[in-house]
Design brief:
It is a single chain. By secondary structure, the protein is an alpha+beta fold. Helix content is 23%, strand content 37%. It has 2 domains: 70 residues, Nuclear Transport Factor 2, Chain: A (Roll); 81 residues, Archaeosine Trna-guanine Transglycosylase, Chain: A, domain 4 (Roll). The chain has 5 helices and 11 strands, in the order βαββββαβαββββαβα. The radius of gyration is 15 Å and the shape is globular.
Length: 161
């Protein structure tokens, strides 16, 4: 991944990011605190937001969401999918999340929502993905791809930060 530019964000831009994160989950707004140094990295893969030197927010389709490193700083009690131990090695290599590997999920997820993919043993985030089903479908369906993997532990975004 090539970084094209790096620059400090204006206060109004930071406030917009915080507002959008808060609308998704009040917990996400804690990623940026008053007095933090907030910068943007424009890369060939998209825009990343650094807070005090760590990449904790990514921009996907004009929307902001925590990176895996950002999710590690949070409890992730909403917008999550938890997978069993058998799925961990596949997800951390970029595989999409399949329904048989899911042991828990937020029933309020809507199709198209960005979600944090966690592992079941310690609840640690492994990936960020896009839900392909509503929360209700997770109960109804027992097989198939249900979360598209966008960013995961060990990928290019992880290595930059």
């Amino acid at each position: 991944m090539k970084i094209r530019t790096r620059y400090h964000l204006r206060k109004s831009a930071v406030e917009n990011i915080i507002r959008e994160l808060r609308e998704k989950n009040t917990e996400y707004a804690a990623l940026i605190r008053k007095g933090d140094r907030v910068e943007a990295l424009e890369t060939d893969a998209g825009r990343l937001i650094m807070v005090n030197g760590e990449i904790v927010i990514l921009e996907i389709d004009g929307s902001y969401f925590p990176t895996v490193k950002g999710a590690l700083l949070l409890e992730n009690k909403r917008r999550f999918v938890t997978v069993d131990r058998g799925a961990v090695r596949f997800i951390t290599r970029g595989a999409h999340v399949m329904r048989p590997g899911i042991v828990d999920y937020d029933p309020e997820i809507k199709k198209g929502d960005l979600v944090v993919v966690k592992e079941e043993t310690h609840g640690k985030p492994l990936a960020i993905g896009r839900a392909l089903w509503d929360g209700r479908k997770f109960e109804e369906k027992k097989e198939g791809k249900c979360v598209e993997n966008i960013h995961y532990v060990g990928d290019e975004i992880w290595k930059i930060g």
